[in-house]
Amino acid sequence: MYVAITGGTGFVGSHCVAHAVASGHRVRMLVRNPGKAQIALDVHGVDRSAVDIAIADLTDAPALRAGLEGVDAVLHVAALFSFKASDGPSMRRINPAATEVILDSARDIGLDPVVYVSTVGVFMPPRGINLSADDDPSSGCGPYTDSKIAAEQVARRHQSEGAPVTCVYPGGVIGPSDPSPELSDSMAALRDLLRGSVVPFPAEIRMGWVDVRDVARVCVGALEPGRGPRRYLVSGEMVSMGDFTELFTMLTGRRFRHLSPPAPVMLGLGHAFEAAGRLLRRRLPLNAEIGRLFAGSVRSGGWETADESPAAEFGYPGHTLEETLGTTIRWLHANGHFADRHAGHLAN
């Protein structure tokens, strides 16, 4: 199958490109920066001759549509994701608008399937203890989740009309081979969190962590025509933040202390971290949106279970959380993002 992939220079998207090529698909990468495309291909050991590259910015509707001409399917991974408050208006504007252009154009052209990478963030703050891909979107927690909820509404409109749109909902994505020299926002936040010894989140907060390779496996596996609208939850293993740091301790020998502020204080910490990030001109592992997200999780109790069973048809999951976290730590260390003291036992 000849498939167009957006976001192929990013963390999830680059893994999707590599997995699609390895699975025998012909790939056209729709990218803003061809230089970053070459870096992403090199990180994954993909031969440049194995893919076509087309220039298409998320804000350029004609270029996005042109990039879909002549292919059989599209995998839309690209989205603006930032912890910077100044990027909020851009996220709210660009993410749903680009999704609408791509999905509308794909439907007009007759592509099948159309795979759209959403996020479990569209279901935040949690409304119950059991998470399903068929749940209604939630109210959002800030610019990023708001933008993805708006994009989700576009995808669900197409699904309700019978279009062959498949939605994939990843949780917190970690793993090896991030092509960004500075790391993607999610990996940078994990790096900054685990470089320290104090976690500014309550230990009881629950969230899912998923291997980027497993997300790519489901996204590429869903490239099957003739199956109509589908949804796949790939939230990853649901664990408390305390259990997550205990696993990190087991792997590295390092120990962490959790702050356990009540929800109102969590909100205040989020705003304080965001202000500090502006002053320091760096990303920090907490901002106002994350503060609202975690405060909502504390108030609701968070998710206890997630129905990922539909994704099992693609061999999901292929990695345990312990395997994924160990691989992530080793990769961060090997690529200069962790010092020996951060990686602990895994630095050897």
Could you give a short description of this structure?
The chain has helices spanning 11-22, 34-43, 61-68, 88-109, 143-160, 185-195, 212-221, 241-252, 263-280, 288-300, 321-334, 340-343; strands at residues 2-6, 26-31, 51-55, 73-76, 114-117, 130-131, 165-170, 172-174, 198-199, 206-211, 230-234, 237-240, 257-258, 305-306. It is of the alpha/beta class and 348 residues long.
Give a verbal description of the structure:
- 44% of the residues lie in helices and 16% in strands.
- With 348 residues, the chain is of the alpha/beta class.
- It has a domain at 2-179 and 207-238 and 304-319: NAD(P)-binding Rossmann-like Domain (Rossmann fold), CATH 3.40.50.720.
- The strands form four sheets. A seven-stranded parallel beta sheet has the order 3-2-1-4-5-7-11, with helices on both faces. Strands 8-10-12 form a three-stranded mixed beta sheet.
- Helix 1 crosses helix 7 (212-221) and helix 9 (263-280) runs antiparallel to helix 10 (288-300).
- It is globular.
